[in-house]
Amino acid sequence: MAGYKGHIAGATVFGGAYLAALGYAFSVDAAYRQFTALEQVGYPLALLALALLFGLWPDVDTDSKGQKIFYSIFFAVDLFLVVTEQFRAAAYLGLVAVLLVLSTHRGWTHTWWAMVLVPSPLFILPYLHVPGRPLVGLPFYGAAVVGYLSHLVVDRLW
Fold this sequence. Notes:
Layout: H1 4-25, H2 28-34, H3 37-56, H4 65-83, H5 87-102, H6 112-117, H7 121-129, H8 138-157
């Protein structure tokens, strides 16, 4: 059973390979023409951060570093939603957070279907809200799935 350091290492390797594959698939020269210098640094960092976060996500159902990180994020987002009077969204987020701790460790969070479904808002929401660029969320979804996959693979190795 790998600890969080093993999962971070695995997500770093998988995330780096994902970035390399994206760089190979899409011309780096075209990126220089299309993106600003800040975007050229920010996008890869955001993709790697997503891979690292989702490399820890499956252990959110047990006392772990991943649970501490995600519940800190949940709290900050929920506080923002309450302050901005978006109570329905805050309630849904609270429901999701409670459901996560009610499941058993290595339950549904350690399944292949969860690996595909849990990060899906990263693809679906941009698809719905940015009609001029419907695939804008795809690289972020891919990074999250790759990070999630790294966790499942590393757990099977240990």
